[in-house]
Amino acid sequence: MLRPLVRALIVVPALNEERSVGPLIADLRAESGKHGVEIVPVVIDDGSTDRTSQVAAAAGARVVQLPKNLGIGGAVQTGLRLAWREGFSCAVQIDGDGQHPPPELSKLFAAFRGSPTPDLVVGTRYGDDRQGFQSTLLRRLGSGWLRWVLRVVAGVRSTDPTSGYRLYGPRALALFERAYPYDYPEPESLAMARAAGLNIAEVPVVMRARTAGSSSIRSWRTAYYMLKVSIAVALCYARSVRRPWPKAM
Amino acid sequence: MQFERYWIFAICCAVVVAMLVRLLLRERVSLQHSLAFLLFMLGALVTAIFPSLTYRLGRLMGFALPSNFFFAILIGVLFMLHLGTVIALSRLESRTIALTQELGLVQEQMARLSGVAPHRAGASESAAHGSPASETARAVAGHTDKPAPSGASST
Fold it and tell me: Chain B residue closest to A178 (CA)?
């Protein structure tokens, strides 16, 4: 039995994605109404210099134009704030570059309907079936280190901590509306969610290689990325020990 | 004991103080954030003109050489000043991010209420340049703006 209609805000952070954002919005709107979920796409234009906003608006998305570039964390949080204020049942973060196929949304929603209701559903590309885009060796090594840090330090068991295909329930929205990491936010936010006592679920999804643009994680920056995220996860744990997070809601 | 006065160092300090005062007069820096730095430079100026002070203070704190005492103090003070800057910077950053998000959200709400589509290509830099292309986009977007059955259920 399906629950009553769920309204989901689909948060699409986009920076100069005029080529991929149009089809993505069209695909997202085609998903609306299926599985008893009403889908409202919102594109967070993180200071693009191309026509991302116009393309997105023409495709029928709501568009929030940030007057200055905030980076992925600030952009995602903008969408989460919107979802929280307007009382959406949940928000889904999906990359604007075409990595995350909209039909996979149904898997996230199915997991969200599970019992006990998860507060955060992470789409992982390292599921049992291992199909679709997998990633490079370096990235897999890095991902392995992050998985280890998250598991040992923060107590989060995640197979794909850098995944940006995620569903936020009301308690996660309440938490991240107040505080969300600014750069390389995904693994750190998992630690935050865990520290706040949120229920994190994972579901295997198929991801594609990006259709345009390049990953924000590459080459020597990986070193900074790993160090920053590892320390951030440790800090998050220390914070939660010193001063337990206020229970969301 | 005879001390020579370090005039070159004194002049350097004086120049920095003068620069700082000039910035203050032009309101390029606020007194609140530069006061500690100003006092520190004035202190350095005093020690340049009266090195005996450094010597006595250093002795008092167990430094054999006044220069060591001077450098230790210098490093400590600069570290504190820098720390203060980092704290101020972090606070500013989180405020800027919150304000930018708020501005984006408010603009979106305004646009939805008044039915105007986003029209600024490259919101950050370019000042509204009404190129024919963006005019068309505005017109097109204006018609298809009604977003699905999303409902104008803003709170």
Answer: B98
- Beta bridge mates, A92: A10, A167
Compute the distance between CA of residue A224 and CA of residue B27 in angstroms, rounded to an integer. Answer: 37
pLDDT of residue B127: 38
Phi-psi region of A71 (alpha: psi -120 to 50; beta: other; left: phi over 0): left
Tell me the residue type at B125.
Answer: E
Find which of B96, B105, B109, B114 to mutate to test the A interface (most A CBs within 10 Å of its CB): B105
Angstrom distance (rounded) from CA A58 to CA B143: 8
Please tell me the pTM assigned to this model: 0.77
| DSSP code of residue A66 | -
Q: What is the pLDDT of residue A82?
A: 96
Q: Which helix (H) or strand (E) holds A121?
A: strand A120-124
CB A226 within 8 A of CB A161: no
State what percent of residues in chain B have pLDDT above 70. 72
| CA neighbor of A78 nearest in space, from A41, A26, A42 | A42
Which H/E stretch holds residue A24?
helix A18-31
CATH 3.90.550.10 fits A6-242, yes or no: yes
Q: Which helix (H) or strand (E) holds A103?
A: none
Which sequence spans correspond to the domains of chain A?
A: 6-242
